[in-house]
Amino acid sequence: MPPMTKIRAFIALPLPEATLRIIAKLQQELATALPGIRWVKPGTIHLTLAFLGDIAEDSLEKLGTSMLSIGGLQPPVTATFSGVGAFPSRSRPRVVWLGLNGGNTLSQLHGALKTELDILQLPIDDRPFVPHLTLGRHRKPVPGAGRILDSFSDRDCGSAQLDQLVLYESRLGPRGALHLPRHTVTLSGPQP
């Protein structure tokens, strides 16, 4: 029997072009203030709801079907984008991020997705869900990062409606990850 094909996958909400343009300007400002950080290409920035890692390709079809039911029940998420922070902390940034608030709608969507993944026996990260957009990554300490990031802590990047739920295949390559949409559903449920 041939080995089962594994696909590196995650589920995310993509961002509208207008929001990505605002975020790209923010990244340019941050890049000037924080040289040496690897910045994420603006076109690939998204809100990850579930990172699945390597899963069997036949699981993607089952997951696509589950996503259809979620899309019909869950309304679009109105998200506001504000506040630059870092993991594990602003003074020791390994991941620089933009905060995101999607309110109860986002929490309910994440909960519905987690329930479906549990039913399909697909793994999901057990860490608490902290909505954020990854802007850049760095491996070494960045001198003065805390003070610089503090000056961006209340940056407002507006709001947008997120109405697409996408299952992406992630292919790692020398120029970074390539994200290929495998299933896309529209969030069309009634507004609460």
Can you walk me through this structure?
The chain has 192 residues and is an alpha+beta fold. The chain has a single domain (6-186), classed as Cyclic Phosphodiesterase, Chain: A, CATH 3.90.1140. Helix content is 30%, strand content 41%. The protein is built from four helices and nine strands, in the order E-H-E-E-H-E-E-H-E-H-E-E-E. It has helices at residues 17-33, 57-73, 103-119, 145-150; strands spanning 6-14, 38-39, 46-56, 77-89, 92-101, 132-137, 156-162, 164-173, 176-186. The strands form two sheets. The chain has a five-stranded antiparallel β-sheet with strand order 2-6-5-4-7. It has a four-stranded antiparallel β-sheet with strand order 3-1-8-9. A hairpin with a 2-residue loop joins strand 4 (77-89) and strand 5. Helix 2 packs antiparallel against helix 3. The longest helix is centred in the first third of the chain and has 17 residues, at 17-33. The protein is globular and about 45 Å long. It starts with 5 loop residues before the first strand and ends in a 6-residue tail after the last strand. 30% of the residues are buried. The mean pLDDT is 92.
